[in-house]
Recover the amino acids of this structure.
């Protein structure tokens, strides 16, 4: 029997719990006839794509070959970010990869933001990347950082994780050093520098908001 594939495109607007949103769509994919927005022939694989990502012909061919293989239950897919007109080959975004292709019964998504597809089984890695261009302007980037840091801080608060003044200072500094120097973000020029700064700012906001949540308990 030939394997078939459900493709779920997640529109990120107005979502405050990304894992819950993905799990909801994953459940719908198991009964495709009830949801005409899913491309599905009733088989056993699911591919998640965000609305700001694109599938290349090379990735399409690789996915189709992967779902016919019996070697793995899920696959990491690398992602290639474009920021300020430049492909980011370095920094943490330059080596980003996520489990986006898996059997329907592989597992579930966890964490309300920076979510992960967690399950049981052998995991392989594809080579062709998803193309990603989500930050078209600095303004929209800052809006996303503000939203994500709020969700992340609330999640950490519920997990009992505490912040402190030294974390607010040290973690953003370490994040910049990691992205710009250790992960060679400086090789991506000005876009790489700005990305490293923005990622550091994300860390600063997350730990600051978490600190304030505990102070206002």
């Amino acid at each position: 029997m030939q394997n078939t594939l459900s493709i779920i495109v997640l529109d990120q607007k107005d979502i405050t719990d990304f894992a819950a949103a993905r799990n909801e769509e994953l459940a719908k994919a198991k009964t495709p006839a009830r949801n005409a927005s899913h491309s599905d022939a009733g088989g056993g694989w699911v591919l998640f794509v965000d609305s700001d990502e694109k599938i290349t012909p090379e990735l399409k061919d690789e996915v189709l070959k992967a779902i016919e293989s019996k070697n793995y239950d899920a696959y990491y897919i690398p992602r290639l970010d474009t920021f300020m007109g430049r492909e980011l080959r370095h920094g943490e975004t330059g080596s980003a990869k996520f489990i986006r292709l898996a059997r329907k019964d592989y597992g579930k998504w966890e964490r309300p933001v920076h979510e992960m597809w967690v399950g049981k089984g052998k995991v392989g890695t594809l080579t062709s990347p998803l193309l990603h261009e989500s930050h078209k302007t600095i303004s929209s980037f800052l809006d996303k950082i503000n939203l994500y840091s709020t969700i992340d801080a609330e999640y950490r608060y519920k997990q009992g994780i505490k912040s402190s003044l030294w974390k607010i200072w040290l973690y953003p500094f370490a994040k910049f050093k990691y992205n710009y120097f250790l992960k060679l973000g400086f090789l991506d020029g000005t876009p790489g520098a700005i990305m490293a700064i923005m990622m550091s700012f994300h860390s600063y906001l997350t730990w600051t908001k978490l600190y304030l949540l505990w102070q206002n308990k």
